[in-house]
Design brief:
Helix content is 41%, strand content 13%. It is an alpha/beta fold. It folds into two domains: 2-145, P-loop containing nucleotide triphosphate hydrolases (Rossmann fold, 3-Layer(aba) Sandwich); 151-399, no CATH class. A five-stranded parallel sheet has the order 2-3-4-1-5. Strand 8 and strand 9 form a beta hairpin.
Length: 401
């Protein structure tokens, strides 16, 4: 245990408290069992360590942070650590990278059942399954999905501009006032292009020159390690899956041709559909359907995007298509803020949000012709600074979380 506490002290003392993401306030920390889930690189480990640093004094042995991705756990079990920790008066156990520990869910369930006084917080990949067939944690575990940075958060970190998030209903109801408030403090378009290229993963602020190498590292790790381990994807197909991602990066959203994807990558059609599901679970792509309530297994999506615009810039061999970039941004920010995003349908707008709101995406000259007869419809327009009625700047949707 002393070795774990030494590593705990080093990890907590080194974490910066200069910026703490708002998701910190949305997590139900009083719950006995919490999971923070998200793709590699979005800041899960930092968030856990920041919570400890802000709520416990240095040297407090009622709390322990450890990573399941260390040699310590090659000869020790999670259950053993929890038992020894509780016997020493431990009350809060934080386990990072829990998905890298074989059979983690069974041991976490046992820890939960044995030690009623212990709060357990784990972090893991987007791909971890709460119910692995042997240990059902669904009734015990509070899961919080953690996305990358919003445009609002990027402004705080990159330019020192602090804004409160705005709900979608508030933005749609009074967009003019919101845009005036933001533009009174900065020119958002000055920063927006930079966010689209570099602003989603927090590690941009650690080493900017190597950013795209790190983004590609996230992709490679997710495909080579996580998908093969957690979704039993054939190792021999990892290169083909990376080729699939590159093909998607060059697609325009209204052209989803599974046969074409199959031919371009050498993957069987039904396998392509299965892999698209895996890639979405891994937060590398986003599939859109016209009706989420009626989709079936291996159904062809109506639109496919990479998960965020930084992936688009990192993987696309040339400059990304402008329309694809705009739609990728809007879908990402809306979904990351917790909204249900669907394809609105041919000639009915780009997106249907929460079953009722229709949003068409375009440039500054985009009109409302495609939205005729649609109630509660809006245009998200790029390259404009102010809102005009139901025409709202695209960048404004980056303040939803």
């Amino acid at each position: 245990m002393e070795k774990l506490f030494e590593r705990h002290d080093a990890a907590i003392s080194n974490v910066s408290m200069e910026y703490v993401r708002d998701i910190m306030q949305r997590i139900h920390w009083n719950s006995r069992l919490i999971a923070i889930r998200g793709p590699k690189g979005v800041g899960k480990s930092t968030l856990m360590k920041q919570y400890i640093k802000s709520h416990f004094e240095p040297g407090d042995r009622h709390v322990l942070y450890c990573s399941a991705d260390t040699n310590y756990f090659t000869t020790h079990t999670l259950l053993e650590v929890a038992e020894k920790f509780v016997k020493r008066g431990g009350l809060w156990l934080f386990i990072d990278e829990v998905h890298k520990y074989q059979g983690w869910s069974r041991e976490i369930k046992e820890i939960y059942d044995l030690y009623a006084e212990l709060h357990v917080v784990v972090s893991g990949s987007s791909l971890i399954q709460i119910n692995d067939g042997q240990a059902d944690l669904s009734r015990r575990l509070f899961v919080h999905d953690m996305p990358g940075l919003s445009f609002r958060e990027f402004l705080h970190l990159d330019a020192g501009l602090c804004f409160n998030p705005i709900s979608l209903d508030q933005l749609l109801e009074r967009p003019e006032k919101f845009c005036i408030d933001v533009c009174s403090r900065c020119h958002p378009l000055e920063h927006f292009g930079k966010y689209l290229q570099y602003g989603y993963y927090p590690f941009y602020f650690e080493e900017k020159r190597e950013y795209y190498d790190k983004v590609e590292g996230v992709v490679n790790y997710t495909v080579d390690v996580e998908l093969t381990k957690h979704r039993s994807m054939e190792v021999g197909n990892t290169r083909k899956v990376k080729a699939l991602l590159q093909v998607i990066s060059q697609m325009v959203p209204y052209e989803v041709d599974i046969a074409k994807l199959s031919k371009a990558t050498g993957i069987m059609r039904m396998t392509v559909l299965k892999y698209l599901t895996y890639l979405e679970e891994a937060s590398l792509i986003r599939r859109l359907f016209t009706d989420l309530m009626r989709i079936t297994d291996l159904q062809k999506p109506d639109k496919i995007y990479l998960d965020n615009t930084n992936l688009l810039y990192a993987l696309c061999p040339q400059r990304p298509e402008t329309g694809t970039m705009r739609e990728t941004f809007l879908a990402n920010q809306l979904a990351s803020a917790g909204h249900k995003v669907e394809y609105a349908g041919y000639k009915k707008g780009d997106f249907r949000i929460d079953g009722s709101i229709v949003i068409e995406v375009g440039g500054e000259d985009k009109g409302f012709g495609q939205l005729d007869g649609q109630e509660h419809s809006f245009v998200a327009a790029d390259d404009i600074e102010s809102a005009y009625g139901k025409k709202i700047p695209l960048w404004a949707f980056g303040f939803l979380y």
